[in-house]
């Protein structure tokens, strides 16, 4: 008996390189084709800008766009933190009392299934604009955290729960040492979804707010550029949004992997 | 064959009972009668096996003794430590599965009962390490459960049950999922621990051979609702070793226990 089973074999280097290189090649080929089509057909930039024009716009308008990016990212972050804390707290509350769960859960579902784009204009009337935007991001993002955390809290090993009971664990002890760690993989899964959704919520609210007059986020820039037929800037803002979404997902996936890598199946190599 | 039990055990059995069940029944919410009425007296320091077909309520009986679920009727009496507060009321429980927390180290798993009982971290870690050493896993304190084999996980589970120094050890088919050779080795280790620690052990199993090899007394239970079919004392030279497994006395006892078990499965087709 020894711990050799713990030493995971590394996946073959060649295969992981292929998995990384192939999408890059496809991306480069797509860009090249796009550039060629625009140049050969002499398509005007207000119809379809070439990738090179988009990059130039990104550099030229960086001062405006970077400020907008910061605004959108801050909104996303606030919405995400609110969704994370709110979703987990609500799930804990539901877990403590069935009465609370039965009373409130239907409303959580209603909030989730009502399109946020339809709620946003109302929120903008009743709340200060920045608050309304964050609330939109929260509404879109909190549900996966809530439902995943609830699932995790309810999937605690029955015998482990019995063990805690045998040793007279208090409710806070059971929560801290058993339920929360057991639910952690589910919670992190919920947060990973919530990261992308809070960006979507922020963008949707910004667009709604943009038509109401004020705002300076990336989505507002897109709407504004649309009215002014500044299509290259639209694409540049879109590119930034897309990159932001990728980075958010990557960061959350990395955090999840680092937290779970020593024990959870999802973070272990196939051959472990 | 003369009985040559350790004198301390004899003395203990004369003085007090560790567990006493009188007319205990368990009826589940769906109306199924799972157990009893069951009468069982276990003297302090005894190693007793509960043997019976699956579904006969052996595990239920253990859960009742551990206080994990209430009896529907009858009295469950478990001798408690006098004086100082005993974590887990002086009971250690080993489940059928290792039931370890996958998110933390072996040492933290073993320390859990002490942590829940409010024992300071340094003392808890020292006692966890001692318990791990007693089951032969001193070198694996920092490993995570998934890095261990099935037998090692079971040892960790045993160490966790022992870390509170309980008077009574309840074991619910702990070795059922292990291969025969690993199980034989763990049987010997368990016997050695029992001899050195002098605890009362109630061991649930569905293996005739395991129950005869380990226990001083085999209680054979009927099919559901579980009652006592036979109460067979295993008298042999102590301490037992591998030679007992191959002796004629051993096979005679196995024959007797099997015969007592037969009514619970012969002529029935419900299982």
UniProtKB/TrEMBL annotation, chain A:
This protein is called: ABC transporter ATP-binding protein
Which Gene Ontology MF annotations are present?
ATP binding
A Pfam family of this chain: BPD_transp_1
Q: Which UniProt keywords apply?
A: ATP-binding, Cell membrane, Membrane, Nucleotide-binding, Transmembrane, Transmembrane helix, Transport
The entry sums up its family as follows:
Belongs to the binding-protein-dependent transport system permease family.
Q: What SUPFAM superfamilies does the annotation carry?
A: MetI-like
Q: Which organism is it from?
A: Bradyrhizobium manausense
Q: How does it sit in the membrane?
A: Multi-pass membrane protein
TrEMBL record, chain B:
Short name of one Pfam family for this protein? ABC_tran
> Residue limits of the ABC transporter domain?
19-248
Which UniProt keywords are given for this protein, alphabetically ordered?
ATP-binding, Nucleotide-binding, Transport
| Cross-referenced SMART domains | AAA
GO MF terms here are: ATP binding; ATP hydrolysis activity
What is the documented function of this protein?
A: Involved in beta-(1-->2)glucan export. Transmembrane domains (TMD) form a pore in the inner membrane and the ATP-binding domain (NBD) is responsible for energy generation.
Q: Family per UniProt?
A: Belongs to the ABC transporter superfamily.
Q: What is this protein called?
A: Nitrate/sulfonate/bicarbonate ABC transporter ATP-binding protein
Which species does the entry assign this protein to? Bradyrhizobium manausense
Origin organism lineage: Bacteria, Pseudomonadati, Pseudomonadota, Alphaproteobacteria, Hyphomicrobiales
């Amino acid at each position: 008996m020894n711990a050799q089973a713990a030493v995971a074999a590394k996946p073959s280097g060649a295969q992981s390189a292929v998995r990384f290189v192939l999408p890059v090649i496809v991306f480069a080929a797509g860009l090249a084709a796009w550039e060629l089509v625009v140049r050969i057909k002499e398509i005007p930039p207000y119809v379809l800008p070439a990738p090179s024009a988009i990059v130039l716009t990104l550099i030229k308008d960086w001062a405006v766009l970077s400020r907008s990016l910061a605004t959108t990212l801050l909104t996303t972050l606030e919405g995400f933190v609110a969704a994370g804390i709110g979703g987990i707290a609500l799930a804990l509350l539901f877990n403590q009392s069935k009465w609370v769960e039965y009373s409130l859960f239907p409303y959580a579902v209603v909030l989730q299934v009502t399109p946020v784009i339809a709620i946003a204009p109302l929120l903008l009337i009743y709340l200060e604009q920045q608050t309304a935007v964050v609330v939109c991001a929260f509404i879109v993002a909190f549900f996966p955290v809530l439902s995943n955390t609830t699932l995790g809290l309810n999937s605690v090993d029955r015998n482990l729960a019995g063990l805690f009971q045998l040793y007279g664990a208090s409710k806070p002890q059971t929560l801290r040492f058993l339920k929360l760690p057991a639910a952690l993989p589910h919670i992190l899964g919920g947060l990973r979804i919530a990261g992308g959704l809070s960006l979507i919520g922020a963008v949707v609210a910004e667009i709604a707010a943009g038509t109401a007059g004020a705002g300076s986020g990336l989505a507002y820039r897109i709407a504004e550029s649309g009215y002014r037929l500044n299509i290259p800037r639209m694409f540049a803002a879109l590119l930034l949004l897309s990159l932001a979404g990728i980075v958010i997902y990557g960061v959350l996936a990395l955090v999840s992997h680092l937290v779970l890598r020593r024990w959870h199946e999802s973070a272990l190599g196939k051959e472990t | 064959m003369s009985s040559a039990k350790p004198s301390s055990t004899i003395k203990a059995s004369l003085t007090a009972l560790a567990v006493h069940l009188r007319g205990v029944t368990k009826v589940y919410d769906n109306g199924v009668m799972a157990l009893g009425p069951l009468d069982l007296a276990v003297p302090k320091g005894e190693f007793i096996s509960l043997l019976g077909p699956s579904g006969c309520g052996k595990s239920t009986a253990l859960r009742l003794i551990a206080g994990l679920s209430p009896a529907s009727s009858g009295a469950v009496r478990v001798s408690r430590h006098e004086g100082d507060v005993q974590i887990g009321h002086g009971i250690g429980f080993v489940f059928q599965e290792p039931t370890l927390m996958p998110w933390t180290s072996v040492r933290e798993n073993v320390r859990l009962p002490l942590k829940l009982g409010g024992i300071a971290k340094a003392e808890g870690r020292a006692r966890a390490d001692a318990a791990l050493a007693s089951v032969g896993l001193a070198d694996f304190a920092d490993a995570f459960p998934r890095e261990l084999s099935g037998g090692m996980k079971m040892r960790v589970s045993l160490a966790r049950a022992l870390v509170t120094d309980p008077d009574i050890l309840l074991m619910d088919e702990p070795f059922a999922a292990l291969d025969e050779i690993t199980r034989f080795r763990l049987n010997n280790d368990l016997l050695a621990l029992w001899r050195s620690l002098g605890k009362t052990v109630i061991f649930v199993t569905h293996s005739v051979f395991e129950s005869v090899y380990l226990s001083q007394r085999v209680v054979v239970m009927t099919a559901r609702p579980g009652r006592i079919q036979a109460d067979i004392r295993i008298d042999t030279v102590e301490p037992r070793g591998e030679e007992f497994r191959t002796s004629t006395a051993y096979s005679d006892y196995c024959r007797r226990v099997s015969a007592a078990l037969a009514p619970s499965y012969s002529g029935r087709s419900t299982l």
